[in-house]
Amino acid sequence: MRLRAPALATCTLTFLLAAAGPASAGNTTGDFHYRHLDTNGVEQQEKWTNPLQSECIDVPDVTADRPAYSPINETDSKAYVYADTDCTGTEYLLAKNVGKGGEDMKFLSVVFV
């Protein structure tokens, strides 16, 4: 039995799409910015590109005494930032693509949904 060219092309395309999988499964698209003070008290500006989605992320290099602040959400997902680690404590919502918080919005963890 011989496969004809269109059938062979369809089978090949189906296999390639299945092998490639989703383009960005598990990640949101865009940038998330925030600021924090390092151990020397110097302000640092951070940016995450295409962060994980639906998983709580504890912000690295911050503590309750030196929390992250001034978040800007330029991702295609809503961002919930939390005053404590493990996405607990006071919760703040940042709208997708345009969500911003001021210097008084302090947080230690975030989840994108």
TrEMBL record:
Q: Which UniProt keywords apply?
A: Signal
The superkingdom listed in its UniProt entry is: Bacteria
User: Is Signal given among the entry's keywords?
Assistant: yes
Q: Where is the signal peptide?
A: 1-25
Q: What protein name is recorded for this chain?
A: Secreted protein
